[in-house]
Design goal:
The chain has 791 residues and is mostly beta strands. It has a 26-stranded antiparallel beta barrel. It starts with 16 loop residues before the first helix and ends in a 19-residue tail after the last helix.
Amino acid sequence: MSRSPRLLRPAPLPPLIALALCAWGEARAQQPVDDAPLPLRSSRVLATSSKAGTAKPALVISAGRLSAQTDQQAQGRDGVELRYGELVMNADQLDYRVVDDFARAEGHVRINHNGNVFTGPLLQLYVSRFEGEFLTPSFFLAATGGAGKAKLLKFQDSEHMSATEGSYTSCPAVEQQEPAWQISAKRLRLDLAANEGEADGAVLRFLGVPILAAPSMTFPLSSARKSGWLPPNIFLDNRGGLELGVPYYWNIAPQRDATFTPFIMTKRGAGLDSEFRYMEPGHKGRINFDYLPNDRLLGRSRWDLLLNNDGKFGDWRYRIKSERVSDDDYWKDMSRRVESQTPRLMASDFALNRQRELSWGVIDTYARVQRWQALQGTDALAQFDTPYQRSPQVGVRVTTAADEAVLDSFRPWGRKARLEGGLELEYNRFDLPGSALAGQARGGQRVHALGHVAAPLGGEAWWFIPRASFNAAAYNVDQPQADGRRRMSRVIPTLSIDHGWVFERDTTLFGRDYRQSLEPRLFYVNTPFRDQSNLPNFDSAPKDFNFDSIYTDNPFSGVDRVSDLHALSVGATSRWISAAQGEEILRLGAVQRFLFRDQKITPDGQPVTQRFSDLLLAAAAHLDEKWWADSTLEFNPETNRSVRSVLRARYSPGPFKTVSVAYRLARGQSEQVELAWQWPLYGTPITSRGADSKSCGGAWYSAGRVQYSLRDKRLTDSVMGFEYDAGCWVLRWGIERLSTGRAETNTRLMLQLELVGLSQLGSNALKVLKDNVPGYRRLSSDSSPSSDFQP
């Protein structure tokens, strides 16, 4: 509670050495004429008082005209400046009473304290305690980057102050013009120590129009957490209509918080979104529960539950990640609330593992339970085969202390050859979720063993890694296979050799110095044929054919399928590295596989008889700071046609200017073009404004991403928007279109107002643009502490 200045006890007097020196010319007129001047001795250092507990900053007053009485008072006129520790005060005139440490400043008063700046006509202040009153000041707060005005500002101490009839904004001050946005309050209290502000009778005005009012509100003075109501969320789409949500943030403890968001949707009704987060010693995670008690369109309740937790008990680590929804159409109707990367396939995964490091290697023991919720829907053509569940998965993995750089085919340095290897033993119980299609094969049990031994060796510019491995598995299935068996097993050995070189030379390209590398590589693999047609397939899938998979010994992931591959992969990569920046400027690569015999076990089930595989080509270039380009091509030498290709290019001539184009082809499956951009359209761009600009006027920007299917001749997932940056506020609006089926889409309208230095109101258009536009930059990233995330 504020106390009257006249009732305050005087503080201990600060040292007045500097004050006496500044006032010497005036003070000596008050001494007898025959008094000799005080002798002064020079010192190499400016030392504080030697008495413990009495050290205080020196108080220094300078002015055009200065008079003082030692240990009594001082008066300054014409450009007065007072310095005391972190406090700097400027005024036209100053009266300072030494006895009670009280200063009265008038005329163009300006104080700077810890980066906070206050200006006004009249100030009364107890200097050492920083306690007093400022009449009709303007202020700038370093913690928020905002500014404001008040009828009266009271300082309780250096970290607590209150304003009567105050206002706050981040817009620059313009004479005879109201800021574009501001918060006004009858009473405003600021606690810098607790990083908290409190406003009574607060009204938020934008372009002079009140858009939000509250009888009382609290807010943080920076990006730190603070309990209270957050700005409302506004969404509009064709499935839910207009949605309004008002989040309440509860800062429970330093390691726990929660957010509750009551919402109402014009088409579906009212509900509640909630999130609880925690970070305890050894455990961290969050729980989200979104609930719509009565969907008016469907006549029933709908919900989404998400659990995400990581932690450890002693040497054991665990992970829980699960998401479940109420119905098959939830991912369409409530897509904004679904977090799964595969929105039609919800996973529940519990994993437990312990890793023990020994002098000779690592022993990893693990257990896992994995369940699925498949959202099949009623469209039979859109239904899909669900993956198998693991109920449970238990195993142990032993790996020697290998030189990982060698095993990952990087260059070793001065390494001696030695045997290295690993062994994995695992049990799985596979079954299908209740949402699986009727025609899917039933589950079963599997025990498998994977092992390898290698003798890597190499030098500074080469490596040679011979490797022998085996894949053994035994099955007990619930449903007899085509040959009538329910129990079966097999063992498949593999031999591989990985050999490569790295050659380098200094060269020039386009008149610049570069270090060029040539990196040829050979990979030989020999796996005999083992008939697997009557064996179950629980977890194997074809690998994507690319520069990484062509140098592996099995074109399948998982355990259940091992291809009979006898082949040699031959490839080379050349890179040009800038000698000045160390940046890769150009990369060219090519690789092709040669088969020594027909391959019978293939991803598509059709034997491969051609000796040469498709040719893989890759290129990437960054020849200029403004241009980036990369491409990959899979070329079939028999048909002389490309099978798959990706071409991408991006042009970024400056900040907030980027345009990218992409072309993707998977012959017989899809063909797509994409255009993404962020570009100024009209007005003064951010990068062209002067630092002393007095206007909130800004520029229009366009941003978005458009995908078009050449095969289906229609737009697919796309977003288009516009942004207006006024310096102290940013307006974003646009449309997002998401495909939810062959003839279904979810169209959302985005509208967001960001008050720079305060918060964001409306839908989270900012996050949508950042996720979809390559090279996108937030317009207010350098000046706004508000978060990019919004519930």
